[in-house]
Amino acid sequence: MKKISRVLIANRGEIAVRIIRACREIGIETILAVSQADKESLPAKMADRSICIGPPAPAQSYLKVDTIIAAALGTGSDAIHPGYGFLAEQPKFPRACAEHGLIFIGPHAENIRQMGDKLLARQVARSVGIPMIPGSELVTDHEEALKTADTIGYPVLLKASAGGGGKGMKIVQKPQELKTAFAEASAEARSAFGDDRMYMEKLIANARHIEIQIMGDSHGNFVHLFERDCSLQRRYQKLVEESPSTAVNPELREKICRAALDIARNIKYENAGTVEFILDQDQNQFYFLEMNTRIQVEHPVTEIVTGTDLVQEQFHIAVGEPLSFKQEDIKLKGHAVECRINAESPDKGFMPNPGLLTQWQPREGANIRIDTHCFPGYFVPPYYDSLLAKVITIGPDRSQAIGRMKGVLDGFTYGGLDTNIPFHRMLMDKKDYLQGNINTRWVENILAEEKK
Amino acid sequence: MDSISQSDVIQILKMVEESHTDELHLEMGDLKLTIKRSIALASPSGSTPSVHTESRPPATNDAVEVEGRMPSPVAAAAAENRDGLTAIRASMLGTFYKSPKPGEPPFVEVGQLITAEDTVCIIEVMKLFSTIKAGLNGRIAEVCVQDGELVEFDQTLFWLEEIDEMDVFATVKSS
């Protein structure tokens, strides 16, 4: 069996801290690849060694495959953990690792390629009988799009095959808007991904975003770790995640988890992954959305309600060990809620707000988990995403988890820059949220109301 | 635009260097700028751009080309000084080589006078060999890295005693 004694972490921020913590517990030495802007970061201090791979701009540091491979080889590392974002879902990265005898802590390049192309991913899902949102495969021009839209009915959603993060995506309410929307969405896709292939789906107005955490090993074992509800989003960016979902009853849970496993099994998926679904609350019907082939930002929610350590498990799977738990060992216990704390100003249209954190003291406690790379005096650099921390609270039930979240948000001491903490705190008081009357458009609706 | 900054001048110099122009005159109000390309005095690479990338025998015979968009690996001259010395820093992460080929004399040694255009070392990233220019005129005071060592981006490779350009040219020419 392969062995990892030293890993290079090709990422930054809270996920770098998270990976270092996991490595400490399983006795793996850590080398952190840092850009010039991250040399004094918390993970750089925690790692056994950090190595500067380039200037602050990601294109010249965290996205440079050759430099990162050279850093791993030069430091005697035998594996690379990509974290999320940056190179985590680029098939060329695991391929380059394999070429140089490095273990990639993640799925095979082929898994990433299949699921990264949304059209290919839809083929896989359809082939194993997963319900798909009424819509199209490739639409080549707006004429074809018009015909398709007529058959599925408005409103429709135009999406980019290479898409992600809401880029190359447009809602079309009526036929007159389609031509412009098609041109805009495909242009956006071309500039963001260098790929302007588009497809179309019926827009589900009252939808929940439900995703299933899965894991597979090299011995053909697959498990699911139940659902996360990530319906609270702003501009397709998740804000609040929780598990379990109030919209999923035991019967639906069994169906949707089985669907996720069918996909994983079909592509012989290895390591941690997430299959995302759209749940139409009016029809009580779920549809395949996409699969993410990485550890996700919101993985702690699942770790808490299932009592697992998904990042440690990633390492075990990568060296060829079988999964350390079986499906029947995994039980949902309690309720977890996570708020993503970002350096942004809710009062100024959620403008990113980098700068010096003069104060930083999150409340601690037995039912609170804070995943963060921040500390008092940390300079939040302007080059990367604005995530400062993930606050996760735990309770025997949802209302107690939310109650604890309110307490943490109220007692959060920070200074120097704006965060979205007040916005989260406001959401936690909304009657609709407390009663579970939410959907993927709910946050945007709240914002529209607040403006009035 | 009524004034011209140092970075504008550098920009113009770069454009001239990359073009086939031998001479450029620019007049803006009171400002007169004349740039003449002279026959290479100190640099053996003449008027070609200052970046050279080559495959280094015996590693491979494949010729490796540097993409036009790649940042020019001229060593980053740092503001940080030590006892009046200036650092020549690594412009990229990679393996440091002090000489053109194994066994050959190093590009530079302590005490040697160099011009900004002189090659001081090679840095290799995944079989891509980039020659690194000094970027400054002066005398090598210290070599900080061992041959074959992994260097980080921005790591100090050499300490240099900066010397006025004319003095270096004069010394290099007469030696």
List keywords for this structure.
heterodimer, A: 452 residues, alpha+beta, Rossmann fold, Dna Ligase, domain 1, D-amino Acid Aminotransferase, Chain A, domain 1, 3 domains, eight-stranded antiparallel beta sheet, five-stranded parallel beta sheet, 22 strands, globular, B: 175 residues, mainly beta, OB fold (Dihydrolipoamide Acetyltransferase, E2P), 2 domains, five-stranded antiparallel beta sheet, 34% strand
Going by CATH, the homologous superfamily of the largest domain in chain A would be ATP-grasp fold, B domain
Order of helices and strands of chain B: HEEEEEEEEEEEEH
Query: Which CATH architecture of the largest domain in chain A?
Result: 2-Layer Sandwich
- Compute the average pLDDT of chain A: 95
Give the terminus-to-terminus CA distance of chain A: 62 Å
Provide the CATH top-level class of the largest domain in chain A: Alpha Beta
Could you tell me the number of beta strands of chain B? 12
**Global structural class of chain A:** alpha+beta
Separation of the first and last Cα atoms of chain B: 45 Å
Number of strands of chain A: 22
CATH homolog superfamily of the largest domain in chain B: RNA polymerase II/Efflux pump adaptor protein, barrel-sandwich hybrid domain
Quaternary organisation: heterodimer
Shape of chain B: globular
User: How many strands, which pairing sense, and closed or not: the largest β-sheet of chain B?
Assistant: 5 strands, antiparallel
Could you say how many structural domains of chain B there are in total? 2
Largest interface: A-B, 15 and 14 residues
Radius of gyration of chain B: 17 Å
